[in-house]
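--- STAGE predict ---
source: upstream dedup step, 1 unique chain passed
mode: sequence only
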Amino acid sequence: MNIAYKNIFSIYKPKGPSSFNIVARARKITGVKKVGHAGTLDPLASGVLVVGVGREATKRLSEIVGQEKEYIAKIRLGLTSATDDAEGIKNISEFLVAEKSISLNQVKWALGSFVGIIKQVPPQFSAVKVGGRRAYKSARTGQKVELLPRPVEIKDIKVLQYKYPDLRIKVICGKGVYIRSLARDLGKALGSGAYLAGLERTRVGEFTLAQSVTLEQLAELWQKE
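--- STAGE serialize ---
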């Protein structure tokens, strides 16, 4: 725990539970009702989830949520998903033939177009409110909602590994960026379709993956304090 952020912890969220589930577990571990988190991670994502315990700590979360974030993303080209990630696997349909060849240079060129301040449309399955209702709630009933593009900043994208159809990238970005939307839009730019096959958040501001603790370790830390 960073001393400058008393009672604010970098929790490692594994793939599976929701961010709300992690907060509920932290609330039970600490016995403190006022617990919150800075920046939601989807259930299929893992990595850094910044959790504040207590009134003073949760007040500072709004400051942290706006800080720079870093992700390692696995993107699969050649297919699309209803949810823009692997959760919609049952609804995945082939966009173009899977044998379509896309060079590394094409991938890098397309990714370069997303660096900077861009307009990004959130996924249909997102927590964005449209008419007072969460978009994902409408999407689950088969209703498509109109989500308007929003300005977001992607500071850097680096290709870590590429062998069609699988691509691994590191993304450094500001607040409000959907990596699922980046994967979807990359597929459109390449004319191949794409979806987010895996995601790990490795940093939120000063809070890094290396400093993160599991919920079990949080329990030990809390008992010591």
